[in-house]
Structures are given as C-alpha cells and as structure tokens.
Design a protein that fits this description.
This protein is an alpha/beta fold and 270 residues long. It contains eleven helices and seven strands. Strands 1, 2, 3, 4, 5, 6 and 7 form a seven-stranded parallel sheet that branches. The chain is globular, with a radius of gyration of 18 Å. The termini are far apart. 38% of the residues are buried. Bound molecules: zinc ion. Zinc ion binds next to loops. The site of zinc ion has 5 residues, from loops.
Length: 270
Amino acid sequence: MMQDFTLKSYQSLLLALQQAGYQFQTFEELIEEPVEGKSVVMRHDVDELAWNALKMAQLEHKLGIRSTYFFRVVKQSNVPEVISKIAELGHEVGYHYEDLSLAEGDMSKAIETFKESLDYFRRYYPVRSVCMHGSSTSKYDNRLLWKNYSLEDFGLIGEPYLSVDFNKVFYLTDTGYAWDGGKFATRDIVESNFGLKFHSTNQIVNCLKEGKFPDKALILAHTLWTDNMIQWCWLHTREFFRNNLKLLAKKNKWASKIYKKIVELYWKRK
Ligand SMILES: [Zn+2]
C-alpha cells in the first residue's frame, strides 16, 4: 500500500479528479464564475511549512492545475520567496487571518491589523479572498470580525466559511492527517448533508473512479504532504500526539492549558 499524505498520494488524488472530468477552479473563481458540471477547488491553508506549499504548487502547475493558497502572518507561513513563487505559478493567494484571536478579542485593533496584513499580501497578489485560521486554543472565533465589518469594504469577494453553501459543495479536509479527522478540529467544521466519509486518500480516489464523488467539491489540503520520509514520520508522530492532546483539552482544563502554552510557544509572530 502507498504511504498516504505524501506528494505521490497527492498527485494520485489530482489525477483521479482530472480523469473523472473535474474542472479545477480557484476559490475566487468559484465565487465569481462557478462552472457548470463537475468542478473542484483545492484550498491550501498554509499554517506552517511554507516550502512544502511550494512543492504542492509546483506539482499542481505541472498538471495544469490552479489552486488557492491562504497564508498566515506567522513566520512559518509568511515566507516572501514562497508567496511570490506560488503567485508566479498562477495560483491564487489569499490571507489566512487570525487577527481577532491575536488581538484577544479587541475588534478595532483586530480590524486594523487585518487591513495591514491584507495590504501586505496584496504586494504579491491582488488578494480578493480571505479565510479564517481556526486558532483552536483561543476563545475568539476569528470570523466574528464579520459581525462588525463587511468583506466588501475591504475589496474582498469571499470567505470559505461564509460564502459557500456546504450542502451544495462537498467539503473535505485533511485535518490531523486523515480525511475524517473532523473530530479533532475545533472551528474548522462545516455542516453538510452528503453523508460521505473517507479516511485515506485512496478511498477518495476509488470513489472518484466509481463515479460516486459529488459534482462540486472544496478540498482543504494543508501543507503536511511530503515525500521526505523523516519529515513524514515526525509529522505523523506530532499529529498523533496533537490530536489526542486536542481531544483531551476539550474535556480537561489542565490539558487545555498545556496545549495552549505549547501552541503559543510554537507560533511566534514574525
Ligand atoms: Zn489554519
């Protein structure tokens, strides 16, 4: 059996989508001019490992696919060289915002840093879509910003969690190195009525071959996909412990504090 969440397995997924007749759209295209028939958006939240994002972007480019990369302001994500190269390859670049949690709930401070960061990412690409970062250890949901402000005021046309009807577009995410890892997610959860469940990439590929995959899909693939086996083993081990600590943190106050501390130490802002 092929190892999962490698660039090879990512390629097998992309090829299966192409062979099944899916058209690839960027997120802004889905919002502005969705195509008729089968289509898919590959969305990448670059939470960390920006150089891996570039490898995925190059692979997609080789296959004639354009996708969407959302970058954060933290140094693990915000790597100028990577952002420019991904934009040069013809992919969409968006802002993976977490301003409200960074500002500890201070709305006016958050909207100020949001504007600054949006302007910053617009140096690389005319950014028109943004996507919230889950900030699982923060009590502030970054999307709450849009209760007070509107996307249009910032020249934005879409936010995946606000602009897509997930009963019409099938949503899949690779959270925690599994396609059914939703139970580990804190905020990255959407409701839908498709009733499909996958664990491995191979199961998705088979579903595509059988013609049972929904016509419209938005697939969130983070940047942990790698062919470097040392990195692959380390990331699988880390995700295993993180998933379990996250589950524990949902039930236990102390586990929650420890998890929060680790996350704070890990994500230092640039
Ligand atoms: Zn994120």
